[in-house]
Amino acid sequence: MGQKTNRSAGAYKTLIKKLQDHSAKSAVVGLGYVGLPLSMELAHGGFRVTGFDISESKIKLLNSGRSDIDDVTHDTVQRAVSSGRFKATTDFKQISNMDTVSICVPTPLSKTKDPDVSFILSAVNNVKAYLKRGALVVLESTTYPGTTEDLILPLLQEGGRKVGKDFFLAFSPERVDPGNPRYNTKNTPRVVGGTTAECTKAAKIFYEQTMPNIHTVSSTRAAEMVKLLENTFRSVNIGLVNEVALMCDRLNLDVWEIIDAAATKPFGFMPFYPGPGLGGHCIPIDPHYLSWKLKSLNYYARFIELAGDINSSMPEWVVQRIVSMLNERFAKALNNTHILVLGVSYKPDIKDVRESPSLDVITLLEKMGAKVVYNDPFVQEIALNNANRKSVRLTAALLKKTDLTVILTHHSTYNYQWIVDHSKAVFDTRNATRSVRKNRDKIELL
Ligand SMILES: NC(=O)c1ccc[n+]([C@@H]2O[C@H](COP(=O)([O-])OP(=O)(O)OC[C@H]3O[C@@H](n4cnc5c(N)ncnc54)[C@H](O)[C@@H]3O)[C@@H](O)[C@H]2O)c1
User: Fold this and answer.
1) Which residue ranges form the domains of the chain, and what is each CATH number?
2) Helix (H, G, I), strand (E, B) or coil at 411
3) Is 199 a catalytic site residue?
4) 381-423 pLDDT, tens per residue?
5) Angle at 146 between CA 144 and CA 148, to 5 degrees
6) How many angstroms does the Cα of residue 143 sit away from the middle of ligand 1?
7) What is the position in ligand 1's atom list of the atom closest to the CA of 175?
């Protein structure tokens, strides 16, 4: 017994020492928007990092020194690969050499809007088969409170392994905001909660080596809930401001003027802006993880459901406004009208179209007979409704022959004055045309 305790204390000490002197070998499982920047930070901080993914093409791309993520340059990957600090593989046997394993796989919703944790389960099953004694496993994927303890822990303990002795387990939500020029994986404070106090400490020490600001919480459940609070906060506030936009329309008020004025208050108000709906792999999805969990505890998460209803109804509202605009300005029906959509990514200056409301707006417009083309400097091609479409070239001639230009994503690279000057009319769902001075009469705002 005494010998066993000594062995586990030894495993912990060895792990901490390896973390502190950076000799720990780090695995990152899932090399997407979260996993690749994390891999680069760890490699840059002096760890030897092996990235694991199930996509052969991604592994090839990364090993050749190229990146497929906007926030990570080819040069960064190239340097990490050629310095020997980063390599990528699909071979999970290599987990057996790893002292830390960070799991960053997707957590989407199923068709019925329930959490789909199958990616987490598959990753953990692959890891569990080869997990080294004394390794630290950290889940970074966003998920409902209880996932780490109720799903992952039992899997890793199969066969008699014990947490806190044979391996260490923690949850640390990734909070990265792709495209954010100020905050990134490194300088965004980290929240960490472990299964035991030692697990928390080990995870804290791991992140401290490369990130300056770590905040620990009492459990993995608490850490899971922190992330869901953050994203529910955004979803609910965006839902609120979208509803305010609907109210302002009925009151014949300009919602943008109201928000700008309210934002002059230096305390107690934080501006959120309306738009055509929510997009991305986080805000439209994560709150549903929380409400699903609460349903199992007989609690109906009212704010989440209401915000979800309002936000997901925005594409229909956009289409209604387009119908009215065509009717009032040109006595035209939507059927057969030529519409140019500007921006299909879910937010400005990135190429991610996951859950993008632009795709819903295009689908609804086409259902009503509109002839829609799109331009997006960041997204050359999209697959939508069983067809591949290419971004059209944005020219004065195209704008002139189009019945209505609809701004859905406010990329900073667009010249909005030029767009307005050459368009017949513009429906702007983002107030992107706020600096446009000439031809304002052509513009309608959401
Ligand atoms: N994208 C964001 O802005 C963001 C921000 C914070 C948190 N998150 C959360 O982080 C997690 C990952 O999101 P993402 O945007 O990086 O996803 P992503 O789709 O960009 O990347 C996930 C990667 O995991 C790989 N993968 C899938 N199953 C795997 C498996 N079993 N083993 C190994 N690799 C596997 C995929 O091939 C893909 O390369 C999600 O839970 C998400 O909610 C995302």
Assistant:
1) 2-217 (3.40.50.720), 238-445 (3.40.50.720)
2) coil
3) no
4) 999 989 999 999 999 999 999 999 999 999 999 999 999 999 9
5) 100
6) 12
7) 6
